[in-house]
Design brief:
With 454 residues, the chain is α/β, with parallel strands linked by helices. Among the domains are: 2-125, Methylthiotransferase, N-terminal domain (Rossmann fold); 143-270, 2-Layer Sandwich (Transcription Regulator spoIIAA); 395-451, Nucleic acid-binding proteins (OB fold (Dihydrolipoamide Acetyltransferase, E2P)). 33% of the residues lie in helices and 21% in strands. It has helices at residues 12-26, 51-68, 80-86, 89-93, 109-119, 164-168, 176-188, 228-237, 257-265, 282-288, 294-307, 326-339, 366-389, and strands at residues 2-8, 30-32, 41-46, 75-79, 99-101, 123-125, 146-150, 152-153, 172-173, 193-197, 244-248, 272-274, 312-319, 343-348, 395-404, 409-413, 419-423, 432-440, 445-449. A 6-stranded parallel sheet has the order 2-1-3-4-5-6, with helices on both faces. Helix 12 runs parallel beside helix 13 (366-389). The longest helix is centred in the last third of the chain and has 24 residues, at 366-389. The two termini are 42 Å apart. It binds S-adenosyl-L-homocysteine (SAH) and FE3-S4 cluster. FE3-S4 cluster binds next to helix 6.
């Protein structure tokens, strides 16, 4: 049996695409291996959202030279956003690459691998595939308890720093009934939690390929209602077996009252929202093309907290966007102090090809970006510690995801997406447990069980 090693860089969309690639290759007789040195086929599923992510690919590719020596023929493929961005340039830059496959071409992966191994000719396929999205393809999911489910692809926004619209194309939604069917199937296989994936889930419903009478006969091709996403959530909330629903990512500009209402009303929809703020300065938000002001963002988070008590909000922050002054940066720190996010991802601005911000004149020096990044992280550490300590003594519902047989510990997540460790038996995986929190750790909580199985 041939073995494939798949390494994924970047976001959840890439994680999901890797599951699809694994499914397609399994259908061709490949088995997955965790040992890169034993693989017949190595695939890097790549991210190009920041330069650092790109560098990671090139160092990983450098290491494949060792595996390509010797008698065994090893094929190396590059998929994902760098593949889409670079196309045939990748073949020139990295002589060890045999196959480059774009973000919309996954369906062709088995045929391309076959072709390359037969002919020995290096191949590139990054032309947009009209048959994309590829939600009907088989997949091998990484876990049984939680699953990623694509609901839309691409992004129609034009944030001036972001390469995603270039490498992932325009927004396209997946038909509602196909999503509901997939989630029902997952529930039948024992999955308890689904995370709905899209670059901008609030736009769900836009460019849905066809209408059905199933649930939204008023939605016609090319048009959509801002409340399509809330309607999808309501339908999924009725799926037996599924205990929890999450989604990522929501755009602050489009966070609608309907979605906030759905979060307040639907019992399975978890009290967690990832809502990227990027900056606390209106000047910078305007230059980023984000379409909201800090006051507007704050208003939405307040409304959300009012309607959904205990909701955990996480965010993304970019420091050192072109033209960001000390004063702009101070606004970001003030925003973090005022909103008090449960967690955040902070990034140094990284100029990306094909993006307007890369051509802006007043780029911020690396040392300043680094210093600002550290200040954001330090401030967030203090805020998170305080928020986490507030959970001690509280009773929370945990979905058990993993067991560590070495120490008899279970790990699961709260509805707010906080990690909790507690002692328990491995057969509790997949169950909901009521846990009392006994200790706040750096980025997680410790607790102990209160009741038996629910
Ligand atoms: N809507 C998307 C955003 C994708 S990019 C989603 O589903 O999450 C994820 C995050 O990377 C962005 O929110 C932003 O904070 C960061 N990012 C994007 N482009 C960047 C760049 N050029 N430099 C630094 N950070 C960037
Ligand atoms: Fe990127 Fe902005 Fe879309 S961050 S993915 S262009 S919403």
């Amino acid at each position: 049996m041939k073995r494939v090693y798949i390494q994924t860089f970047g976001c959840q969309m890439n994680e999901r695409d890797s599951e699809v690639m694994a499914g397609l290759l399994q259908g061709e007789g490949y088995c997955l291996t965790r040992r890169i040195d034993q693989a017949d086929l190595i695939i890097f599923n790549t991210c190009s959202v920041r330069d650092l992510a790109e560098q990671k690919l090139y160092s990983a590719l450098g290491r494949t030279k060792d595996y390509k020596q010797g008698n065994r023929r090893v094929l190396v493929g590059v998929a994902g956003c760098i593949a889409q961005q670079e196309g045939s340039r990748l073949l020139k830059r990295a002589p060890q690459v045999d196959l480059v496959i774009g973000t919309s071409n996954l369906r062709r992966l088995p045929a391309l691998v076959e072709e390359v191994s037969r002919s020995g000719c290096r191949t590139v396929e990054t032309e947009r595939d009209p048959g994309y999205p590829h939600y009907d393809l088989p997949s091998v999911r990484a876990t049984g308890v939680r699953a990623w489910v694509n609901i839309m692809y691409g992004c129609d926004k034009a944030c001036t720093f972001c390469i995603v619209p270039h490498v992932r194309g325009e927004e396209r939604s997946r038909p509602m009934e196909a999503i509901v069917e997939e989630v029902r199937g997952l529930a039948g296989q024992g999955c308890r939690e689904v995370t709905l994936l899209g670059q901008n889930v609030n736009s769900y419903g836009k460019r849905e390929p066809r209408t059905t009478e199933f649930c939204h006969s008023s939605v016609v091709r090319g048009e959509y209602s801002r409340e399509s996403f809330a309607r999808l959530l309501k339908l999924l909330n009725d799926t037996p077996g599924i205990a929890r629903i999450r989604f990522t990512t929501a755009h602050p500009m489009d966070l609608s009252p309907g979605l906030i209402g759905a979060m307040a009303d639907l019992p399975k929809l978890c009290e967690h929202l990832h809502l990227p703020i990027q900056s606390g300065s209106d000047r910078i938000l305007r230059a980023m093309g984000r379409g909201y002001t800090y006051a507007g963002y704050l208003r939405k988070t307040r409304l959300l907290r009012e309607r959904v008590p205990g909701v955990a909000i996480s965010t993304d922050v970019i420091v050192g966007f072109p033209g960001e002054t000390d004063e702009d940066f101070t606004r970001t720190l003030e925003a973090l102090r005022e909103i008090r996010f449960h967690s955040l991802f902070a990034f140094k601005y990284s100029p990306r090809p094909f993006t307007p911000a890369a051509a802006m004149s007043d780029q911020v020096p690396e040392a300043v970006k680094e210093e600002r990044l550290q200040r954001v992280l330090q401030l967030q550490e203090t805020i998170a510690r305080c928020l986490y300590e507030g959970y001690v003594g509280k009773f929370l519902e945990i979905l058990v995801e993993e067991a560590d047989p070495a120490n008899g510990e279970l790990t699961g997540r709260t509805r707010g997406n906080l990690l909790v460790h507690f002692p328990g038996r491995a057969d509790l995986i997949g169950s909901l447990q009521r846990i009392v929190i006994t200790q706040a750790l750096g980025h997680s909580l410790r607790g102990k069980g209160v009741h038996g199985r629910q």
